[in-house]
Amino acid sequence: MPVPVPQQRSVPAAETSHGDLTLLVIEDDPAGTTITVPELSAAAGTRVRIRTARNLTEAARLLTDDVDCILLDLALPVAGSDSGPGDGPVPGRADELAALTHVLRIAPLHAVLALTAEDDTELAAEAVRVGAQDYLFRGELDARVLSRAIRYAVERKRADMAQHQLTESRLHAQENARLERGLLPTPLLDGSGLSFAARYRPGRSRALLGGDFYDVVRTPDGTVHAMIGDVCGHGPDEAALGVELRIAWRALTLAGLCGDELLSTLQQVLEHERQSEEIFATLCTVDIAPDGRRAGLCLAGHPAPLLARHGRPARLLPYEDGGPALGLLPRARWPRRQVELGAAWSLMMYTDGLIEGRVGTGGSERLGQDGMVAMVNGRLDEGLAGEELLEAAVAEVRELNGGELTDDVAVLLLGRDPERIRRGGGSAPRSRPASPVVVRPLGVQRPPL
């Protein structure tokens, strides 16, 4: 008769204590086991409770959470049972190990000792291969041997369970990492002549994605569209929403939307996808004209970009005409401001994680936009540019904060160098971010970002 599988808890009893132990003996003739409770207690130095079952049906009833180990007689008859899925016994021994495979199926979290005849070493070894933690021969069954075997089986089962959980955790982490890497953006800048670099650091521990997101694409008319945004919050739900908004932005941009029309549509996407009405997202979009000398800027509650030109300090672009963050006002509008970039320039877009780190004694103040501008100009005076500048800026923000930043940080850098364009330098490759090639003038002039 099939035996119902009892409810198993997630942590076996073996992990709870090194004191009292409970042994479930499954044997057709329990009286044949000469070991008594007092003998076991004296040998183990602890109290051992023994339960006995004459068949698998009775064993299933006695198999409760407080059982630490099962002693199974391999000679126990099994009526109408099958070995079930997984690694089964070798051909020809299926009947002899049917009881063991049945017990392993109904008690996957318990340590199991196999009991067999002394002259059947091959069957005992096969029992361990199938899943038992150890085996014992009837002829050597005394209190000391059984006590030691119980302890060993319990510890080995615990180690096996820990290794199994660790392996599952690693596989799960690798799967998540592959998924998150696949969701990171690939800039589409072929033919633009612009350079590109980016740095991304999620605030969540051991994560690749956070609530910050960015993207850069070039449309068929030659316009380069760049975007950076930040979903409020730092959890996996916010990271997923950030990916959705980024993909929606790319689709809407490639479909020809821009400025207020694009942001209004993107707000509808946010309103439909967010978990609660309290979730909002800030956004900064820039559309750079095909000649690379001017751009349109839209701000939705987001910090203004930083622009650097040859011979001039880096400065923030105007932000007075910005609109509210997406998701705050149902019929909001986001004006598009025209910005003159010039012939050679670098444009740095960032999220507030870069400017909200603590500075000063005691960490009572935040870096802020003014502090970031001063920090970047200091690095420009040192001659840093491109990826080196981004790396130095993020590292300095962490150092000023006195440790790892708790908020997500995303920074991207777009640049235009006429000399590079004339030399036919082309644009950054699609497969990975590329450092801008900077021609640094002599004298005291500042290099571009």
From TrEMBL:
Sorted UniProt keywords: Hydrolase, Phosphoprotein
Highest taxon in the source lineage: Bacteria
Residue stretches making up the Response regulatory domain: 22-153
CDD domains attached to this UniProt entry: REC
Upper taxonomic lineage: Bacteria, Bacillati, Actinomycetota, Actinomycetes, Kitasatosporales
Name this protein carries in UniProt: Response regulator receiver modulated serine phosphatase
Record's compositionally biased regions (Low complexity): 428-441
4-aspartylphosphate: residues bearing it: 73
